[in-house]
């Protein structure tokens, strides 16, 4: 399923975060500081950013760190081993990004009232090939995990990288191939790295220095700065509304 080609050059790994433009939900954006063109030089690392005509990012300036707390809906998991694996690997994946120290921290919470997003297991997704999916800062939703993450042995082995990839989306990163294969406009910071954790080359990808340096460059840019023709817009986390 995720381990074989499908006859063209589209990688088979299926992350649903970019499954299509969704209307922004949740919180209002911080007003962007208008019109400051960014430097055209961002070093030799590259990340893809931008979604739905803006470049959404978390606000690390008015309050630092900007902490994003996730709440695992344990009742959605049908297997205690898979739940434990998820708990452990989310901590590992979160630590990778937290250690980059751009001012955004992922942290687990067992208090649903203090969660900025939920982690849920979806046993019957729309498509059986889906592996996981999250959201961008302007489009807060859920961190969803689908059956192949646990049931396909090859994918299960790579789960910490899957989770790292999904946290990368939550930080505002697009797929490495977004510019050529996804309709929603994106722009790049830095140079290409096919083995980026944000690529679909799921057997060779890794949490790369280029991912870390690219994220640092991205979060060091001014709010409102343009990359290409679209501007960075900062968002503040809000708690998940219940009921
Ligand atoms: Zn993805």
Largest sheet: 5 strands, mixed
Number of strand elements: 11
Provide the structure class.
alpha/beta
Do you know the CATH architecture? 3-Layer(aba) Sandwich
Strand content: 15-25%
**Hetero groups:** zinc ion
* Helical run tally: 6
- Overall average residue pLDDT: 81
- Give the low-pLDDT segments: 1-11, 21-45
Q: How far apart, in Å, are the first and last alpha carbons?
A: 37 Å
Please tell me how large the radius of gyration is.
Answer: 17 Å
What fold name goes in the CATH topology slot?
Answer: Collagenase (Catalytic Domain)
Give the C-level CATH assignment: Alpha Beta
According to CATH, the homologous superfamily is Collagenase (Catalytic Domain)
The number of domains? 1
- Arrangement of strands in the largest sheet: 5-4-6-8-7
Report the order of strands and helices.
EEEEHEEEEHHHHEHEE
CA-based shape: globular
Overall helicity: 10-25%
Overview of the structural elements:
This protein has 243 residues and is of the alpha/beta class. The protein has one domain (39-235): Collagenase (Catalytic Domain) (3-Layer(aba) Sandwich), CATH 3.40.390. It is 23% helix and 18% strand. It contains 6 helices and 11 strands. The protein has helices spanning 80-98, 148-151, 153-157, 159-170, 178-181, 209-220; strands at 36-37, 47-49, 55-58, 66-72, 104-108, 117-121, 132-133, 143-145, 187-189, 225-227, 230-235. β4, α1 (80-98) and β5 form a beta-alpha-beta unit. α1 packs across α4 (159-170). The longest helix has 19 residues, at 80-98. It starts with 35 loop residues before the first strand and ends in an 8-residue tail after the last strand. The structure holds zinc ion. One of its GO terms (molecular function) is metallopeptidase activity.
């Amino acid at each position: 399923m995720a381990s074989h080609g499908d006859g063209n050059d589209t990688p088979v790994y299926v992350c649903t975060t970019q499954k299509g433009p969704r209307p922004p939900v949740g919180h209002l954006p911080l007003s962007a500081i208008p019109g400051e063109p960014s430097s055209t030089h961002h070093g030799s690392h590259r990340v893809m950013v931008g979604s739905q005509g803006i470049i959404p990012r978390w606000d690390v300036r008015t309050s630092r760190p900007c902490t994003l707390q996730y709440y695992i809906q344990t009742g959605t998991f049908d297997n205690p081993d898979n739940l434990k694996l998820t708990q452990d690997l989310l901590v590992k994946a979160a630590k990778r990004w937290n250690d980059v120290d751009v001012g955004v921290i992922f942290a687990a919470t067992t208090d649903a009232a203090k969660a900025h997003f939920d982690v849920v297991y979806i046993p019957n997704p729309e498509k059986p090939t889906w592996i996981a999916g999250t959201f961008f800062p302007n489009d807060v939703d859920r961190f969803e995990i689908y059956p192949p993450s646990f049931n396909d042995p090859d994918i299960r082995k790579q789960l910490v990288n899957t989770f790292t990839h999904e946290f990368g989306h939550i930080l505002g990163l697009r797929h490495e191939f977004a510019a050529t294969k996804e309709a929603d406009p994106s722009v790049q910071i830095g140079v290409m790295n096919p083995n980026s954790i944000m690529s679909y080359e799921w057997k060779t990808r890794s949490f790369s220095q280029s991912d870390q340096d690219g994220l640092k460059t991205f979060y060091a840019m001014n709010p409102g700065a343009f990359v290409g023709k679209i501007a960075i817009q900062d968002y503040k986390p809000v708690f998940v509304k219940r009921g």
